[in-house]
## 1
Amino acid sequence: MTTVDEIAADVFRISTYVPEADLQFGQFLVRDEEPLLFETGMKALFPAVRDAVARVLDPRTLRWVAFSHFESDECGSLNEWLTLAPRAEAACSLVGAVVSVDDFSLRPARKLADGEVIATGRRRFRFLHTPHVPHCWDAGVLFEETDRTLFCTDLLQQNGERPPLGGDELVGLCREALVAYQQGPFAHYLPYTRSTGPTLARLAALEPRTLATMHGSVFHGDGARALRDLARVYADVLG
Ligand SMILES: [Fe+2]
Ligand SMILES: [Fe+2]
């Protein structure tokens, strides 16, 4: 069952709960002159995600397929999207494009440098290259500057079937998820390095109002405080 919820003006959370993983897999669709999808979901989810997008806009008009890092839940159905939407272009970090995406993808990606902006019409998305945060060398996040929405990929992950929106309780739920993972085959899901704390501090300084995480509820509230709290959780559980 794939759900679609408008979590900010013209920003839609598409979410599918996968019971085998006890995890929701989310994508974010932004309705603008140049529609943008952040994260595609795995290839197996493509029909469900495409139909969910169609509830909001014509999927063939998608212009940008952006994502954080090269993993199936981030960009597994990139080629399905490039086939369906003739004007669609992948957008990811320069490292992601050079190392993996341009070899995998039907068309070359737009290679985003740290600080570069994608303008989609009314909205501007600033790309921040965040190596190994949440994980992978190529990782990055998008920050929508008008409404201060941070598309933060695996950061703030919560397990289970969660409502579309949440608040301060999400940091504690993220801690529970990380502690549980550390005790099983998914241990070391997120690396903790010398740059983890400073990178999270850099994201907190953006003072986001919304943290659009791909696994679990989207956070609404004091995003700076939540990210600083999250940094302490990471240091505690992973450091
Ligand atoms: Fe993920
Ligand atoms: Fe990931």
## 2
Amino acid sequence: MQLTGAQALVRSLEQQGVEVVFGLPGGTILPTYDPLLSSSVRHILVRHEQGAGHAAEGYAWATGRTGVCIATSGPGATNLVTALADAYMDSVPIVAITGQVSSAMVGTDAFQEADITGITLPITKHNELVTDADRIPAAIAEAFHIASTGRPGPVLVDIPKDLQQAQMTWSWPPAMALPGYQVPGDPDPAAIAAAAALLHAARRPVLYVGGGVIKSSAHDELLRLAELAQAPVTTTLMARGAFPDTHPLALGMPGMHGCYTAVAALQEADLVVAIGARFDDRVTGRLADFAPRAKVVHVDIDPAEIGKNRVPDVPVVGDARAVLRGLADCLSALISEAGPPDTAGWLGVTDSWKRRFPLRYAQAADGPLKPQYVVERLSMLTGGDAVVVSGVGQHQMHAAQHFSFTKPRTWINSGGLGTMGFAVPAAMGAQAGRPGELVVAIDGDGCFQMTAQELATCAIERLPIKVLIFNNGFLGMVRQWQELFYEERYSSVELGTTIPDYVKLAEAYGCVGLRCDRADEVDAVLDKALAVTGVPTVVDFRVHDREGVFPMVPAGRPNDEIVLGPEFSADEQRAATRRELSAR
Ligand SMILES: Cc1ncc(C[n+]2csc(CCOP(=O)(O)OP(=O)(O)O)c2C)c(N)n1
């Protein structure tokens, strides 16, 4: 059958089962927008291509499927760059399709020409400038395959305008030719047996769980392993929700702003089992001092991660789900032979740390509104039954720390790149992927102003996200660093709380706008926001402008130098730093 390249592109998306794409048209992608009009694929017209990219990411995080974004050449394509880099850092499967100037003009500095495959080479898992219209179905099929298999990531397909207009011969499924692309197969049974033996023998084990566990839907297998091993579990910023925070073995988040118990447990562990995690500097603190007493098992689907930062004693290359299943089976056999692992003393220690050094903040009845309180009330009022999306900064850390996550794919954020402006468009994408579910963006006033224009998209497309702005009038996280490390010299961090008027802005965008500045109003305002249907809601929470995020490990310092924060006495801080370990 003869089709145009554009028709073939749209049909390929349909064949891939794509239900929604986020994009914004322009000259070189116009041929594709024409058949899109009569396609079963829903197109959501964003206001800025960065929004399309983050929406595709939010969709992918929320659904586990591959998100799709479309842009025109030149500035349309370059506006996708931040989202592609974000998806690359966080291993989010998205496919970006860009128009390119016609083949004969490529390389001539034509109007709206940008070498987008060159620009995105280091921030995509794969990209391709298509040079033959007959290849369009294969290019799309390969893009989805590469984006979603192995360690997921972004793929960009750049298609010159003349190829979209050209006639091609359609056939599906296309033959894929990917000789250099291999997805790791079954994990090595010997490595799994060695890891299980270490877990069985450990007295102070910690499961260090990263985003890979969510990506491989391995949460049930993780729960089984943790309970068999009686090993406490820490979930990184990328893995919140992979293990229920309500479980007695849950330690919360590790890292720079992690819970004390999670940070200290890793430091004191005799065995760290890292699963789908990458020993990121925000988790390890000064690498040389991270988990100094621990043997390490490192499970990852990407062999390049293994030994990158910490050389493991037992490397296991494979899909987290398959590995966790194998580990649990192996451990279960060891338990039948030799009894359960002896971790009771260790769990006693971690439980006492949880009691003595919890996350602590002070909300006075008449005092300034604390962001932590708003997160806690949201968590309580929703019963944790929400998809929570965040921006980047203090509000992100407060949300990650204080919301009680119990299910995977309920926490979406920009962990690796740390992209301000992520929340609103990512929430839009999550809502498109999970219609009818509650999607709440917790955003900073600085972040919100970077991509707030997508509220128009949400209102028109009837994507009723809730946006809770934690309006502290500052680029709060930067302000905190200036307070702690630059002698309170506040350089260019004050935004002001009143411009823009977020309630009016929300209304101008066709959303409901609410405001709250008192603790005793939080429940009523949240109830009101949660009751809105059909249109997005924005709440301007006027939160305390001086509130910091604690605990905190200063950047580049060893995790043992963790600072509990102003709500703890000097004695408590001393006790936390000089840990007496009955179990050691
Ligand atoms: C695009 C981008 N620019 C700059 C930064 C550096 N940065 C990290 S957090 C932050 C402040 C965020 O302020 P706000 O959104 O108000 O959140 P808060 O920290 O106050 O909760 C900045 C500027 C960033 N992460 N991303």
## 3
Amino acid sequence: MKINVAKNGGFCFGVRRALAIALKTAQSGAYVEMLGDIVHNEDVVKQVNAAGIRTIKRLGRGDNKTLLIRAHGASQEVFDRALCRGYRIVDATCPKVRKIYKMAEVAKHEGCEVIIIGDRNHDEVRGIVGQLKGKAIVIDSLRRIPLKVIKQISKACVVVQSTQNLDKTLHILSRLRKHIKSLTFYNTICRPTRVKQEEIKTLPLHNEVMIIIGSRTSANTRRLFEISKSLNRRTKWIQSKGELKAGWFKGVKSVGIMAGASTPDDTTRNVIEDIKAF
Ligand code: SF4
């Protein structure tokens, strides 16, 4: 059985960078807190917690504490509140996400209505909306475009959550173009996401079985799974090697492996080793 591992699978540079910043801050002896998980991956969260970083649900008193801002950022309100409460802030927001904030802010300043294509409950999208003080329209699917509102807009700028599916984005965009006269589109889907999505459009066609590795809470892993499943019905989504089933590989000649942007290389390596053993 041939095992074909995606060239672009696993950690993106933004996650790698955030993790390095988190561990370095913890090693410096600081008392570090984080609002929510650093990335959507249980193994990474465990590693970060083991390093002494505490995950909190809401801000407390910040004296002698450091607040770590995660890879997908936070709204300006979070920064302001944290500083008010006395926290020191270490910002691990991915530079790609910060770039989206900037683009959206400039567009708003120039009188554009800002439209964000993305999952409205995702931290990154909340962060962009928060940076614009709530003045943005979020569209998460073709079926849920608020047409009444959209028809009243004459000038808009569209930005996209960095891990969105490009095809879905383009469908939404072409619908918006029908109603908005002046529309500027910034394709802010980041490069690591694009190359993964490109690869996942071919890998499932050349392998009998596809294994997608990543947490159930990881939106980018879910998108990789959905694309793969649409091309190859024998696509399986697992979080770690423990979920592998020998039966999936019986008589199979080729297996494709793809890992989400928040999946550590170790998790992928362990999955490969176990598949080899099958
Ligand atoms: S997926 Fe893209 S935007 Fe998000 S952390 Fe990774 S590189 Fe940055």
